[in-house]
Design goal:
Blueprint lengths: L2 H12 L1 H6 L3 E8 L9 H16 L4 E8 L13 H4 L20 H16 L4 E4 H6 L4 H9 L1 H12 L11 E2 L10 E6 L4 E5 L13 E4 L6 E2 L2 H11 L7 E2 L8 H11 L10 E2 L3 E2 L2 E2 L10 H7 L6
Parallel strand pairs: 1-2, 2-3, 9-10
Antiparallel strand pairs: 4-8, 5-6, 6-7, 11-12
Helix pairs in contact: 1-3, 8-10, 9-10
């Protein structure tokens, strides 16, 4: 049996009631638009697209969403960009950073559009959206509220699942500083149920420079973003996902997937989707990396290979 048929069988088993009701089975994947996308990154998109196709071939109603994550902060500068130019944007959300090339609204759109072109050329048939849409349209508001209200529960999950200790005053959320625009340099100091107080400081994280501003702001409607693990769980809920996997690094014991699943159940009171992990492409025994110069970009490969072979 083809491996994807086994996955589709399990999706059918788990979500039989959803299928019988005629409601769509939701498949989701995402990629952070932090730079040129190497061909190895297509493994996850291909896995999800193939499973979605098989479920459709079986006559099921399927919605396949692919997210371009444009709200993540810049936490590293690709080697093909001028570090002196982009150092000041470390910690800023990708959609707020200027594009290295003209003709694009921001940094994330340059590299996000490149990936969308590849996905469309191969024929994955995904509905593409941006992370900023989820946040700015309020589709993450309920999860943000629950995260702030239940921060102690999240602290316990981190310790129990991953062995990670979080400071008692840590809120799992970052707001965009109203003065300098940094995301990673901000730290929430209080939450009253509607507004958060925060400070923006270079002491918050080593690689992002804060401006020293202190403010008070609503954390909703695109003013803030969740860190990776709570955010992954929040997106499970926001998009009502049934099938979503990820790279095998996320599936290690105590890793991102286990933490996200626990947050999904215990904080958001929602059952996480079924998922499987995908392997990496290795070059010389190491993960393929565009920024390290040991990878072919996905765009380059679409120019070399016919879509069905790629």
């Amino acid at each position: 049996m083809f491996w994807a048929d086994k996955i589709a069988d399990e999706v059918e088993r788990r979500y039989q009631e959803t299928i019988e009701s005629g409601k769509p089975i939701v498949v989701r994947d995402e990629k952070t638009a932090s730079g040129q996308v190497h061909v190895g990154s297509l493994r996850s998109a291909a896995l999800h697209a193939i499973v979605a196709d098989i479920l459709r071939d079986r006559g099921h109603n399927v919605e396949f969403y692919f997210e371009i994550n444009d709200f993540d902060p810049m936490d590293g500068i690709p080697g093909y960009l001028d570090a002196e130019v982009y150092a000041k944007y470390m910690g800023h959300p990708l959609f707020k950073i200027p594009s290295p090339e003209p003709g694009f609204d921001n940094f994330a759109e340059l590299y996000g559009q490149e990936y969308v072109e590849v996905v469309n050329k191969i024929g994955f048939g995904a509905t593409v959206y941006r992370a900023t849409e989820l946040y700015k349209e309020g589709k993450m508001n309920d999860q943000i509220r629950a995260t702030l209200d239940k921060k102690e529960v999240i602290h316990k999950i981190y310790k129990k699942v991953s062995g990670s200790e979080r400071a008692a005053d840590w809120y799992p959320l970052n707001v965009i500083c109203e003065k300098c625009g940094n995301l990673s340099a901000t730290k929430i100091t209080s939450w009253d149920g509607e507004m958060v107080d925060y400070t923006c400081s270079s002491d918050t994280i080593e690689w992002a420079e804060g401006c020293g501003h202190s403010g008070r702001i609503s954390p909703f409607d695109g003013n803030a973003s969740l860190p990776w693990k709570p955010e992954w769980a929040a997106k499970f809920v926001a998009k009502r996902v049934h099938f979503e996997g990820g790279g095998k690094d996320h599936y290690t014991k105590g890793g991102s997937r286990q933490v996200a699943e626990a947050i999904c159940r215990e904080v958001f009171e929602h059952e996480p989707p079924y998922g499987v992990f995908n392997e990496f492409f290795l070059v010389g025994g190491k993960k393929m990396s565009s920024s390290k110069g040991n990878a072919a970009t996905a765009k380059e490969m679409t120019e070399l290979l016919p879509p069905h072979m790629l």
